[in-house]
Amino acid sequence: MKKTGILTFHYSNNHGGVMQSYALYDYLKSRNVEVEIINYVRSRYKYDKVLLNLGMGRGADPRSVLQRIRIRGRFGKAIDKKFDRFRDANLRMSTEVDERSIANILADYETIIVGSDQVWNPSMRGSNVYFLGFGESFCGTKISYAADSTTSDIDPKYTAKLRRELSDFKAISVRNEHSREFVEKLIGKTVPIVADPVVLCDFSKLNLENIPTHSEERYIFVYVLGEDIKGSNKQAVDKIRKVYGDMKVYAVVDPTKKVNLNVFDYADEVYYDLGPEEWIGTLSNAAFVYTDSFHGTLFALKFHRPFLAYYVEPSRATRFVDLGNRYKIDDFIVSSIDEIEAKGSLEKPPDFDMIDDVMEDHKRTSIQFLYAALDVS
After folding, report:
1. How far lies 9's CA from each of 20, 81, 268, 278, in Å?
2. Distance separating alpha carbons of residues 109 and 285, to the nearest angstrom
3. CA separation (Å) from 279 to 13, 211, 250, 252?
4. Do the Cβ atoms of 200 and 363 come closer than 8 Å?
5. How far lies 190's CA from each of 156, 183, 193, 310, in Å?
6. Mind listing the pLDDT tens digit for each residue in 24-50?
7. Strands of 148-292, DSSP E
8. E strands within the chain?
């Protein structure tokens, strides 16, 4: 029996990326769809993993470089094992393939769904994989679910290629407004904006109650992937403590990526080796969540955790602005310390009843898209 394959960013040790992969897989499986993750791992990813950015640019502090090397050397293998165990236990995956060998397994699939996450970001546009431009190697149904393009700007050298590939999809949905604009520029169609798979899934099968967390105490959970907020994360955390109480700060860092060493300025404890379930468990029990992660913010909403989200890099700005508008949480998403004061972000908790209503409505229309695209009921 031919299957439905999901083609996404399931393979990196990014908590949000892995959980959104699990969420779409689990939801489709619960609807009796014969589904598996296409275990595509870019060959470039493996190369980048060996040559990690250690912050050795002009003016780099040698002590910082050595600290990053030490952290990765101590915790890198441990986090790899935890993520691999989670994927092996919770995801049915194909044999591992790369861009040279993926064509060998495409005949196994009747349908391929690409998404969610930033599968259409500018760095992916020169490749055919996440745009399903496989030619005669795949003649099945092509669907995108909550694909994110990062930006609506398009390099003219890719226009004809992308237009040809997207025109061959049966159904296209995206995760935000700038991705909708990206598609409309290419094929002249207005496509639906659907919810990230995290919104569809209740994660009840993960037995999170068995995950050890700091459930006996109140703490601030920090999950930062990029640069500090303008004005410093330490200052932001100090402001949170003044409002919510002088709690401990527990920060989660991914040691396989560029470690933001500023976390030592304000965290009482730093975790480098939390697996996906441990990460959710620790976030869900927090008294407050501070993050620059899109999925960190979504999980704060799901678990009704007071939160403050921020963005600095342009690549994060578009998705956060859209998220703030879509779920009526703009007051809790900022780009600087000054904006915390201007928006009154800490003066009142989020209205989770209202947020739940908005998210539930978005979930309903998103499921309708999936059912129609896959011809399931």
Report:
1. 9, 17, 32, 20
2. 40
3. 12, 9, 11, 8
4. yes
5. 21, 8, 9, 29
6. 999 999 999 999 999 999 987 765 555
7. 171-174, 219-223, 248-252, 269-271, 288-291
8. 3-7, 35-37, 109-114, 141-147, 171-174, 219-223, 248-252, 269-271, 288-291, 307-310, 333-334
Q: How far apart are CA 359 and CA 338, in angstroms?
A: 29
* For the chain, counts of helices (H) and of strands (E): 12, 11
Residue 9: what are its φ and ψ, rounded to 5°?
-95, 70
CA distances to 21, 234, 290 from 117, rounded to whole Å, are: 9, 29, 21
pLDDT per residue as tens digits for the range 81-140? 999 999 999 999 999 999 999 999 999 999 999 999 999 999 999 999 999 999 999 999
Q: Side by side, which strands form the sheet with 333-334?
A: 269-271, 248-252, 219-223, 288-291, 307-310, 333-334
Phi/psi at 228 (5° precision): -65, 155
The answer to whether 75 touches 255, Cβ cutoff 8 Å, is yes
Q: What spatial distance separates the first Cα and last Cα of the chain, rounded to whole Å?
A: 19
Contacts of residue 106, defined as CB under 8 A and 6 or more positions apart, other chains included, come to 112, 134, 137, 138, 140
Cα–Cα dist 319/174, whole Å? 12
Which distant-in-sequence residues (6+ apart) come within 8 Å of 331 by Cβ? 343, 344, 345
- Tokens standing for residue 13: 């040790």
CA distance 141 to 81: 34
Please name the helix (run of DSSP H) or strand (run of DSSP E) that holds residue 257, with its range, or none: none
